[in-house]
Amino acid sequence: MTDRTVGLLWHSMSSENLGVGALTLGHREIVRAAAARSGVRVRFKVLGWADPKPAYFTADDIAVRSLRLSDFARLDARGFLAEARGCDLVLDIGAGDSFSDIYGPSRILKILAAQNLLRLSGTPYVISPQTIGPFENAVIRRAALGVLKSAALVTARDQVSADYAREMGFSGEVLVSSDVALRLPYEAASSRSGPGRVGLNVSGLLFNAGADRFGLRGDYRELARRALAMLARKPNTRVTLVNHVLAEDPNEDDRIAAAVLAQEFPEAEVAADFKTPSEAKSYIAGLDFFAGSRMHACIAAFSGGVPCVPIAYSRKFSGLFGALGYTRVADLKQQSHEEILKALDRAFDERELVRRETAAALEEGLSRVARYEDALAALVNRLPIARKAA
Prior knowledge:
Blueprint lengths: L1 E8 L8 H19 L3 E10 L12 E6 L12 H6 L3 E4 L12 H17 L3 E3 L10 H13 L2 E4 L2 H10 L6 E2 L19 E6 L2 H11 L5 H13 L4 E5 L12 H11 L4 E2 L6 H8 L4 E4 L2 H9 L4 E5 L2 H9 L6 E2 L5 H13 L1 H32 L8
């Protein structure tokens, strides 16, 4: 059996954002399956920013290399360039949605610095399923186009991103897949009786800075309160606030928002902190209905077969779910609070119908992820036989 080292760039085994962890562990499942088809044993090198939290778990096939800004300036054996050259293949997932300048210049310039060093390293790299763009700055857009042109494979997790790559001037093939977190392992919930369990995820990011930073149509705090109040009034129902980003920064931390709401609505429970993305998904998959503004919390519900209303603050939501024919997405930029609450209320009342819609859309999503697995298997087959020195 041939050994290969695969770099997972902008992934994390310890991120406080469980969505990034879900991408990492779901991606690992896909890569292992693709490699096994070619008789290849994979060792993973996870390349991402340092995180003070302990790893979700350790495994013999996973090494973690925490990156610092200085690593992109070093050309010696301790810099990022050497790490890239020590891999047979690098899969760049851009933390899901960071291949864009909507989060400001600092983040995208770091992403581009790593990608330019990848091009210099000579190691083949893949733009793995993620949101591509938008890029408001013309210089950054041109640099991003160069990254796409040099990739061994370009994939997007939605058609909107693929179309945007074309608008940028990319003429190569873009494989439209879906979010790799659809393949995140989890434990299916056992059957039970009792009150209906409703999960509500309130984004700490939007709760603290949503309208100003993301151009939301209304006050997100007010919407969160009204949504919680409405769901809590449903008969034979228990509402739990589910946190998916457990951040040190109080402006990002979902727990801060949940604590505020739990004090105002004592009838609502707050889920215990999750230690791993799979633990979070296993919990969410045991709910009867879910709504939230953290996309990967919604993906956990969706891929666990739970009727779900994603409450979107960017096009990544509608792009991902819309591509799968799932239309139960609320839009914080385009819709009024009344429209969002009406959609949420209707989805709750029609949750058995929504469950069937979810199953059909999930089947399409998994089919698209399987295409990405096929493409990776073909790419692994074409890699040179000789291993690089690490």
